[in-house]
Write a structure and sequence with these properties.
Elements: E1 2-4, E2 11-18, E3 40-44, H1 45-54, H2 57-62, H3 67-71, H4 74-85, H5 97-100
Antiparallel strand pairs: 1-2, 2-3
Helix pairs in contact: 1-4
């Protein structure tokens, strides 16, 4: 699907990001939200990769489980600001040091 990325705003091919990761919504209080459209965010591949490079699924589930919370996450907001200054960037994000050394 092609459209406007919900995070960086670029017009490109989009992927579906689950705000509460599917692997963490199998049971408990998040089970009902698993397939709910409010749990979906259509974003570009580079933003999607960056989110998963920065945050483990438990953090996404517990802290950044809404679009607003994710957009206000300091590390991700820094990436989006960088990306907007580099619109020709077509690569994929690298693993961040945050997750790499845990």
């Amino acid at each position: 699907m092609t459209g406007k990325c919900a995070t960086c705003g670029f017009e490109t091919e989009l992927t579906l990001h689950h705000l509460v990761p599917q692997s963490k919504a199998k049971s408990g209080k998040y089970k009902q939200i698993k397939d709910d459209p409010s749990n979906h965010l259509w974003i570009c591949r580079s933003c999607h990769d960056q989110i998963h490079a920065l945050y483990e699924n438990n953090i996404l589930r517990d802290v950044y489980n809404t679009a607003e919370a994710l957009m206000n996450a300091p590390e991700f907001a820094k990436y989006v600001a960088w990306k907007k200054k580099h619109p020709d960037f077509k690569g994929h994000s690298k693993m961040s040091n945050i997750k790499k050394y845990k």
